[in-house]
């Protein structure tokens, strides 16, 4: 099983090393020691914690959808020409960029500072892992 040192796990959870240590000390997250005696957290425990805390801003559009990948954020940039536009959103720690028609940007009223939801429904998702040394 994959284990992460505190300095590796904390950024994955979006917290400081000190916060992660407090969670471990208070029993909110399990830990063990590796062969070198360092405190580590199992990857499966990190995944469970992330699944349990996967909350972002509430979705401004309440409707049923088969798309599960919804990222609520703020529009940070709009670049338009006469036909196409590039819209950038900051959704928590994630930058999401969408290409759409300029007409869609106008119809949606998208401008810097707008609240919007990026909905991703894709048949292809590429997953990468760190290269082994």
Describe the structure.
The protein has 133 residues and is of the alpha+beta class. It has two domains: 3-52, Multidrug-efflux Transporter Regulator, Chain: A, Domain 2; 69-120, OB fold (Dihydrolipoamide Acetyltransferase, E2P) (Beta Barrel). The chain is built from four helices and seven strands; from the N terminus they run βααββαβββαβ. It has a four-stranded antiparallel sheet with strand order 6-5-4-7. A three-stranded antiparallel sheet has the order 1-3-2. Strand 2 (32-33) and strand 3 form a beta hairpin. Helix 1 crosses helix 2. The longest helix has 10 residues, at 43-52. The radius of gyration is 19 Å and the shape is elongated. The chain starts with a strand and ends in a 13-residue tail after the last strand. The model has no long low-confidence stretch (mean pLDDT 84).
Name the descriptors.
133 residues, elongated, 26% helix, alpha+beta, 4-stranded antiparallel sheet, Multidrug-efflux Transporter Regulator, Chain: A, Domain 2, single chain, 7 strands, OB fold (Dihydrolipoamide Acetyltransferase, E2P)
Largest sheet: 4 strands, antiparallel
CATH architecture of the largest domain: Beta Barrel
| Domain count | 2
The percent range for helix content is 25-40%
Instruction: Determine the structural class based on helices, strands and strand pairing.
Output: alpha+beta
Which regions have little confidence, pLDDT < 50, spanning 5+ residues? Answer: none
State the CATH superfamily name of the largest domain. RNA polymerase II/Efflux pump adaptor protein, barrel-sandwich hybrid domain
Strand order of the largest sheet: 6-5-4-7
């Amino acid at each position: 099983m994959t284990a992460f040192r505190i300095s590796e796990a904390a950024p994955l959870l979006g917290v400081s090393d000190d916060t992660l240590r407090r969670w471990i000390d208070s029993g909110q997250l399990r830990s063990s020691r590796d062969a070198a005696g360092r405190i580590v957290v199992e990857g499966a425990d990190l995944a469970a914690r992330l699944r349990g805390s996967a909350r972002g801003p509430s979705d401004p559009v309440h409707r049923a959808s088969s798309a599960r990948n919804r990222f609520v954020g703020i529009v940070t940039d709009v670049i338009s020409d006469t036909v196409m536009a590039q819209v950038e959103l900051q959704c928590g720690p994630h930058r999401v960029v969408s290409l759409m028609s300029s007409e869609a940007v106008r119809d949606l009223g998208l401008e810097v500072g707008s609240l919007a939801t990026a909905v991703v429904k894709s048949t292809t998702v590429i997953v990468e892992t760190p290269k082994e040394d």
